[in-house]
Amino acid sequence: MSIKPDWIVLDRDGVINQDSDAYIKTVDEWQPIEGSLEAIARLTKAGIKVAVATNQSGIGRGYYTEQTLHDMHSKMSTLLTPLGGKVNLIVYCPHEPSIGCDCRKPADGLIRQIEAVAGDLAGTWMIGDSLRDLEAGLSRGLTPVLVKTGKGAQTSAKKLPEGTLVFADLATAVDDFLERLGLSTECESQP
Question: What is the per-residue DSSP string for 2-28?
């Protein structure tokens, strides 16, 4: 399958930042996984736009507010800037699972929101650490890519969708993505 070369879709918790079964509830708890921000910077420098699609049911459960979520994302942007990285679009589902919304992954609502900005995403990669991430992407024709960070090690022991690519972390997945496109995987520091 050919790769759509202008966008990539990432899950957040367990892919970009450390995950917790107790939820990431504060800006201080939001901590990047080693190498993940540099990987996003490599994508940015290669001209790839980065979208994040994340379930954030902690909002619906009352564990943190939407403002706190935006503050976490501001922290991510602040850390990315000196590396030359950028997240172009963030979409999230704030609902508890019991709501039955169409945006909570594995439903495809978040991917459709990204497509409203990016156009058809068929062929690009959906990188996640859970089956629901992979299934949400697959439903819209994205290539399922599992990383073993976050909940990915446990997910890798399950039956994965056919054609799923598996990597140790976001950094190695991004390197492979860029190599398949014939683009540089080097990340030079900004002056």
Answer: ---TTEEEE-SBTTTB---TT---STT
